[in-house]
Write a structure and sequence with these properties.
Blueprint: H1 2-9, H2 14-33, H3 49-84, H4 90-94, H5 97-119, H6 130-157, H7 160-178, E1 193-198, E2 203-208, H8 210-220, E3 222-226, E4 233-234, E5 239-245, H9 256-262, E6 263-266, H10 277-289, H11 297-314, E7 322-325, E8 331-335, H12 340-354, H13 359-375, H14 381-389
Parallel strand pairs: 3-8
Antiparallel strand pairs: 1-5, 2-4, 2-6, 3-5, 7-8
Helix pairs in contact: 2-5, 3-5, 3-6, 5-6, 7-10, 7-11, 10-11, 10-12, 11-12, 11-13, 13-14
């Protein structure tokens, strides 16, 4: 449930919708309280309903134009990023808070002016909603400032270095929160498998709610093993959750609907529990930069440098599953996680195959592997060694 709420709040429309709702409610509240307020704003505002109506009409027209311009710039940025970098970096633009806040400010200004315009009196001697008009003008000034900052922000965001850095920041958050630690418990269900729950839908595993699974396991007297890891694609009907017996007592029937809700399936990979998603984005950028149509080795080097930082943070972490235990040590939930070998294959192996004619990229990959070998846990060193042995330079004269 929490992951779904975070997904809704992180969607492109959530912030503009919140701004729009606040603007409408604020305009209704202010115009309703105007008769109770006495503010010295008569010399600063239009002298009559006709002037106020002209002012608000101009604000509404300008905000419609500004909103269309922001939407157009965002669409162009998304198209350029998709064609030049990777379709998987589109989330960087759609989840960008500056873009959402800018669009929300314009929509809020437009709706606020619309409500105030509808509340203007018809009589020329009637009292104007002075505070509401003042707030409308303040929103216009704020929108102008947001528009200038938005142009600066988008020009910076579309630069590949900023985009790669944004992917790195997001991936480091996922690693700090979801990657295994040395203090994580170990173990697996001891009992035999008595039932297997199928995936309710086709898609990518986005997140696993281990707390909900633990409650189900304790209620039904069983242990649950999630067969698919976050970031892995599943087909409807494939085995998703295995039910293990605990002790000699047969477990009760596990609610397949609740188990399916605990393992969230979506249409695309998202950051969060899918720790390798950032590495996949960086690898896509590097591979596309090394393609014959683009041939931009500098961008590939920058993507590999960011991947190096992420791998350095993962290389000293064990390959441990997520475990939920009872106080007596009984394993109730077992969820596999992405291995370091899979991260290494995504970041190094795939890119190296595209960089056969780029000595600078091959040299950087070799230096990254050499550095990882010095910091790796013992169980990760064979994977690094195999990756180094597969390097095109491994058989070069004088190489040992």
């Amino acid at each position: 449930m929490l992951s779904r709420l975070r997904g809704v709040w992180g969607s492109f429309w959530a912030v503009p919708a919140a701004f729009a709702t606040g603007a409408v409610l604020g305009a209704i509240l202010l115009t309703a309280l105007e008769l109770r307020l006495r503010l010295p704003l008569d010399g600063f505002l239009p002298s009559g309903p006709a002037g106020a109506r002209s002012l608000l009409s101009a604000v509404i027209t300008a905000m419609i134009s500004f909103t269309a311009l922001v939407f157009s710039i965002t669409v162009v940025a998304v198209q350029l990023a998709s064609s030049q970098y990777s379709p998987r970096v589109l989330r960087t633009f759609l989840r960008d808070r500056v873009t959402q806040a800018t669009l929300g400010t314009f929509v809020a200004t437009f709706l606020f002016a619309m409500v105030v315009l509808a509340a203007l009196p018809d009589r020329s001697d009637a009292r104007l909603p002075a505070l509401s008009l003042a707030v409308s003008m303040a929103l216009v000034l704020g929108s102008t400032g947001m528009f200038i900052y938005y142009l600066h922000h988008m020009t910076a965001l579309m630069r590949v270095s900023h985009m790669i850095a944004a992917i790195g920041v997001q991936s480091r958050r996922s690693i700090d929160r979801w990657a295994p630690r040395s203090t994580d418990p170990t173990g697996s269900p001891d009992g035999p498998i008595v039932d297997v729950l199928a995936a309710p839908a086709t898609g990518v595993v986005i997140a696993v709610d281990v707390n909900l699974l633990a409650r189900l396991a304790r209620r039904d007297g069983c242990a649950l093993t999630v067969e698919r890891i976050p970031g892995e694609f599943v087909v409807a009907g494939m085995p998703l959750v295995a039910v293990h017996a605990v002790g000699d007592t047969p477990p009760g029937p596990v609610d397949a609907t609740l188990a399916g809700q605990a393992v969230e399936v979506g249409v695309e990979r998202v950051p969060g529990q899918d720790v390798g998603f950032g590495l996949r984005q960086l690898a896509d950028i590097a591979e596309r930069a090394l393609s014959p149509g683009i041939n931009d080795a500098t961008t590939a080097v920058r993507a590999l440098q960011e991947a190096h930082d992420l791998l350095r943070r993962l290389v000293d972490r064990p390959d441990r599953p997520r475990i939920v235990q009872d106080d007596d040590g009984t394993v109730r939930v077992h969820v596999r996680r992405q291995s370091f070998a899979s991260h290494l294959a995504t970041s190094i192996t795939d890119v190296r195959q595209a960089a056969t004619d780029q000595p600078r990229v091959i040299e950087l990959i070799d230096s990254i592997l050499a550095d990882l070998a010095t910091a790796a846990r013992p169980e990760h060193r064979p994977d690094i060694q195999r990756c180094r042995a597969a390097s095109p330079a491994a058989d070069a004269p004088g190489r040992r």
